[in-house]
């Protein structure tokens, strides 16, 4: 019988070798020698280096994906932080594979995806509607929200109005490209598949979302162009908010607090457009897209 130290030494040697093998796999992904999808498919019991790699290491080795993004992706895919690639459930593996395939295809033309953000009541909805009506080739993304509809808003056109349970389900199923809680109140999210489909067809896409969402989109699509819509003045912004008359005083006050914070973040954006005149502002936004339909 071997003394226990021999087993221990052999065990630790095996552990070191396994760690080295996993490090080599990570290096291959990081250098582009192998795609993360190939490593996922190779993660069978015959390939212990791939199978014992943590999913966080697999995703985290993809160039440009740091630990924060990796953690968020894992949570969106419903995979726990300690999970190893070989231990993934069938559905988790399918979701991860779809994510990786989508990422592989993801190089888009600069400006094919334009994000329009800006403070409440600056006119984002008005400018977007103008683009939707005058540039039918541009896909205007329709978000899902837990906010109740305002008078005149149309299901499936303005928003998909959903309850909390349905919004939770959509998060769980990985159906959102991004989502955020806005004005500390309702949740809003961009459905992923219409966007990836339109981009794959070579269409331009416009997202009208808040700043938190814009930041998330930039992480997923670094080629997206982020536009911040500005009011001609603060007083005009307040006038537009009160003039619209769709929020009570408390809600208006809450929105103006967020608006001040949002205005402070305008430097993060690639472009700033002042919405003095709707048609001019819409034209400036469409001009950022690769082909301006209607030209
Ligand atoms: N992150 C994110 N924000 C969204 C989405 N859809 C709308 N928003 C933002 O949510 C905020 C509130 O929208 P809404 O309730 O329609 O009121 P608004 O302030 O009049 O535009 C606005 O800043 C929208 O741009 C979305 O899908 N994702
Ligand atoms: N360029 C503009 N000049 C004057 N009023 C505008 C302009 N753009 C939008 N508005 C008005 O301002 C209000 C807020 O616009 P809206 O599109 O609802 O803003 P947001 O979607 O950014 O919250 C609406 O009453 C709209 O008619």
UniProtKB/TrEMBL annotation:
Main enzyme class: transferase
Keywords, comma-separated and alphabetical: ATP-binding, Cytoplasm, Kinase, Nucleotide-binding, Transferase
Catalytic activity: GMP + ATP = GDP + ADP
Keyword Cell membrane: no
Annotated EC: 2.7.4.8
Keyword flag Kinase: yes
Domain Guanylate kinase-like positions: 111-290
Binding site for ATP: 118-125
InterPro entries: GK/Ca_channel_bsu (IPR008145), Guanylate_kin-like_dom (IPR008144), Guanylate_kinase (IPR017665), Guanylate_kinase_CS (IPR020590), IHF-like_H2TH (IPR055201), IHF_actinobact (IPR047806), P-loop_NTPase (IPR027417)
Protein location: Cytoplasm
Principal subcellular localization: cytoplasm
UniProt function note: Essential for recycling GMP and indirectly, cGMP.
Family: Belongs to the guanylate kinase family.
Record NCBIfam families: actino_IHF, guanyl_kin
Protein name as annotated: Guanylate kinase
Species of provenance: Naasia aerilata
Recorded name of the encoding gene: gmk
